[in-house]
Amino acid sequence: MVATQATLLKNGTIIDGTDRPGWVGDLLLAGERIVALAAPGAIDPALFAGLELQTIDCTDRVIAPGFIDVHTHDDAAAIDAPDMLPKLSQGVTTVIVGNCGISLAPMVTDAPAAPLSLLGQRQFRHARMADYARAVDAAQPGVNVAALLGHTALRMRHLPELGRPATASERAAMAADMQEAMDAGALGLSSGVFYKEAYAADLTELTELASVAARNGGVYATHIRDELAGILPALQEAALTARQAGLPLVLSHHKCAGASNWGRTRQTLPLIESLAQGQPISLDVYPYTAGSTVLRTDLVDGVIDILITGSQPHPEMVGRYLKDIAREWDTTEQAACDRLQPGGACYFQMREDDVERVIAHPLSMIGSDGLPHDERPHPRLWGAFPRVLACYWREKGLLRLEEAIHKMTGLSAQRFRIGERGRLAAGHMADVVVFDPARVRDTASYEKPVQFSEGIEQVWVNGVLSYTAEGRATGARAGRFIRRQATPPA
């Protein structure tokens, strides 16, 4: 692509995604690439000679790599709602889909069952990862899309009954789909053995599929079997799966859920550190004390608050708390949950000190885990990344600014083997965000979850200005399906 235009970002604080100290300087974009970074006024004019040059004064602003949301369920949203405003408005330029064992490929169905229904009721039309990649490129989403292949989707495709481990022939069929996905550029395998549809999978089943990803330079990301009382053996199982398969492990949305589990990050994080001495392990985290998933009676303990985000039989109850619905119906919370299903909810399962420990941990990356198809989504869908900056950097001082950006950019690109992104460097793709460090903050709340964040001023995706604070989306959609890099970026 021959560049005809260039953009010079001047006098900003450049935080390059590597965790190195920021510095004041200029950055030049031309076409889809970063061309140069230098001290103020030091970029050679010959680099943009003959190009139509736009200059933006970034004094008192931060220039950073576009954020990478490592944990999303945007698989269908990237096609159905390709403007991707919930992510662009946070400064996110790349999303990783297919998490928790849940992916569009390789399923073809008109009636997706839970948990695949978290991706909505449409778009299950992709029998291969290559088909999904083509659909993403045809939709031209506002952000880049990288994909994991979901283990639960594989089970639903190949197992006539889900309450047992896969047979040898079923494992072979799933492995063939796994290889096709890796050939199409998938990042690796994800699992969600927390969900009953995958709970019966044994170590042999998981390891054989993860081994296919390993042979192709992929990763294994998992929503572990138990985030409540059995969290320690569940972490051990995940580590054993990845170790036997021979590939890096990513622990999805690490948390200690349930009131009886609060404070146990003092045990889980040292265990993860110990395991990481012998194998590559990282984890992702969202900056909230509530999670969000399908309605499950086993998560109703009578202690935590549960906010209903969707209910097919009782849509009028969306936005209300389960305890209030149970009181109105003169029944137990468990019985009310049964009557509301199928649906979704926010579960206030975590305690803030546990969230803080995970966010501050050097192995953690930031992911939103937002559910774009919820009628009333968790506020993390619109606010996760600015919230990290506002709450955990600026207000609490839990992270240095460079450290916070690293967890959203360079570390994420390295762990998931996404090339030429996540770092501001000459020759890299021009995924760039400019924000006001004094003003950046989330405004989405549980009461009003669909709200633009403040302080995100400009976002470029592949060199195209795609979002501005004044005009919101520019109308340009420059995202694409991006493929796994052969070796981890430095």
Q: How would you portray this structure in words?
A:
The protein has 490 residues and is α/β, with parallel strands linked by helices. 29% of the residues lie in helices and 21% in strands. The protein contains 15 helices and 20 strands. The protein has helices at 77-80, 85-88, 129-139, 151-158, 168-183, 196-199, 203-215, 231-245, 265-276, 322-329, 333-340, 352-360, 380-395, 401-408, 410-416, and strands spanning 5-14, 23-30, 33-38, 52-57, 62-65, 67-69, 92-97, 144-150, 188-192, 219-223, 249-251, 281-285, 291-294, 306-311, 343-347, 364-366, 432-435, 456-461, 464-468, 472-473. The strands form three sheets. Strands 1, 2, 3, 4, 5, 17, 18, 19 and 20 form a nine-stranded mixed sheet that branches. Strand 19 (464-468) and strand 20 form a beta hairpin. The protein is globular. The two termini are 26 Å apart.
Proportion in β-strands: 15-25%
Helix content: 25-40%
Number of helices: 15
Q: Would you tell me the structural class of the helices and strands?
A: alpha/beta
Radius of gyration: 22 Å
- Characterize the largest beta sheet: strand count, sense, and whether it forms a barrel: 9 strands, mixed
The number of E-state strands comes to 20
Summarize the structure.
With 490 residues, the protein is an alpha/beta fold. 29% of the residues lie in helices and 21% in strands.
